[in-house]
Amino acid sequence: MPVGGPRLVAVLGCTVGAGQTATTLMVADLLASLRGEVVAALDLNPGPESLGELAAPRPALKVRSLLAGPGGPGKPTGPAQAGHQANNGHQPNGRGRLDVFAPEVRGDGNVDMGDQDYGQLFDAVAARYELTLVDPGAAAVARVLTAVDQLVLVAPASPDAARSLAMTQEWLSAHGYDALTANSITVVNGLSKRTMPHAEQAELVVRGRCRAIVRVPWDDQLAKPQTGQETTGSPGASAAASRLGQLRPPVLQAYTALAGVLVAALAAGPRRRSAP
What we know:
With 276 residues, the protein is of the alpha/beta class. It has one domain (7-268): Rossmann fold (3-Layer(aba) Sandwich). Helices cover 39% and strands 17% of the residues. Strands 3-4-2-5-1-6-7-8 form an 8-stranded parallel beta sheet, sandwiched between helices. β7, α9 and β8 form a beta-alpha-beta unit. α1 (20-35) crosses α10. The two termini are 23 Å apart. Mean pLDDT is 83; it is low at 76-93 and 228-237.
């Protein structure tokens, strides 16, 4: 499905431990695989269990390499480049790939980037990738939300899910993101028989106030550190693909549904940023 040019998607957890980073990685990798194209993921949430660490043993690329100009890691080639430049939508070019980028981190643990750097970063991924998912830390959220085309809100199926979702939506509304929120996709993570009542309470908060709700069942594999041993049978399989191959079928189906809903939202919605 054509998405109408380069698109930027923010995945935002409503509380600590919501599954923001895992959701970013799983969906980005699925999109790369299913669409047969190169997808980017920006790790703007440094710290333990960051996107770059979750994607290991595949090393995260440095943001400075992306900002270096033409010929960077994600520069499209062949048919994909022609389709991208003409904004003709999705043109599969064979095997998909996920490029994960991480910026330098200051001594205080925050991303070493200013407002101008963020703008240049978003321009760079728009020039090289059709789809980019962003995993923002608290310090990056405001800068990211001003640039994204689509928002995915992630909440855990826990007792505080409804409250955290309500507070997140109130914050978004207070800062002028009503349109982004209304078209957002809500993910309720870690669903089980025990947590179903908490998930239903959370869904009551957002029902009618977002584009779609996707339930993702609990899976022990998402809570385990990646060992680096590939299980997909492909010698070149990425760490993310290996992790996807270990998921229970209902969980993989849920992430696939999320990827489909996300692409449909991007295809139907207006583009907020233009490719440079």
